[in-house]
Amino acid sequence: MSTPELFPLFAKLAGRRVVIVGGGAMATARAKQLAAAGARLTVVAPEVSDGAAALAEVVLRRPFEPRDLDGTWFAVAAATAAVNRAVADAAEERRILVNAVDDPDCATAYTAGVVRRGGATVAISTAGRAPALAGLLREAIDAVLPRDLGAWMDLAEGERSGWKRAGVPLATRRPMLLQKLNALYGGGPETSTRLPPGFVSLVGAGPGDAGLLTRRAAERLAEADLVLYDALTDGEVLKLAPRAHCFYVGKRAGTPSVSQRSIERLLVKAARRGQRVVRLKCGDPFVFCRGGEEAQALAAAGVPFEVVPGVSSSIAAPALAGIPVTHRGLAAGFAVVSGHSERSYGPILDGVAPGSLTLVILMGIGERAGISARLRERGWRDDTPAAVLLGASSSGSASWRGTLAELGSTVLPEEAAHLPGTIVVGSVAGLSLVSGHATQPVEATPRADAQRA
Q: What is the phi-psi region of residue 233: left when phi exceeds 0, alpha when psi lies from -120 to 50, beta otherwise?
């Protein structure tokens, strides 16, 4: 036979008599909770702690007697097992609910882990079976409840009065309240971290696919007034910012672009006008995206800001192609290098022992011949696996697999030349841990002037 379910109930005990049997630490803890609820306390025990006595209206320093429960609304048994049983029997005769501390067999009512915020009370009970678990669940609930729940309460209370006057059926009120909260928070009741005006969010857009944005990134876009976005940002991502003016500030090699100082001035100026600004950056804001410089400029100008991390293409591009940047027995670490110029990648590549880790090179497609030559000159084997990953997470994504020697002597097809590329060098580049084909392989032809193949 299954145990009957408990009926959850919140009780008004203000001004009502409650008897606590016991005078120790647990009795004192219950006395504090009940006193906060406004109950008139009577404490019965041969020995009563100073804390419990200070909260009680009546203190009876003697053993419990059944008549102590006469005229009471609720009882707490916080004594020995035998005394708790006597309290439970006396309460049963008088049809009084009793809470027996750490003694569920003697209880007809159970306390709960409680979270109170903004006029709302959330409680959870394990029917006395696992009070420590109830406490952990209470902490978890406290962590996810919105900090501004009081504003929700005020809105709901105000709407309820109007609905009652208009005779709105109870069944239809919940979706109506949800619409009101959506309007208040510009995205939904889950958007509990809505930012104040005059705030900048440095947001990582990930490798491109809107589905790989974090929830926080999507929230920030939904409430943005202005979005400054980089090159390679997918149009589907910008659709998540329907209220915002979206302004392109991207940089592509060989093309005119907005200067970094100008971008920083735009961020500061917009925030000082009271706008919620999103600086949308491909990948992660602090991985080759100059997000650190923008953060410094905002801090120097006294503009409040936050960083919303994104999935860096240095990890995402290999992962989407089925290449783990670390793999037991093959690579215990990886290095991410900017490959846009020899001055950037040269000293780093020179300091890496051949085959010791996975190399992930961003923005290095145009330098792949020099990278290949430099690594081979430093002792990397010609047959070291290598991969070129183009347009990671986009519908036109493509990949090339070969060896380090071939990397330096291949010409990628023109139709893939415009795609952002990631180079991976190391044993893991020989793996392809995907179901089906995540990217389309591309044909590469040898360079006519290749010195080594």
A: beta
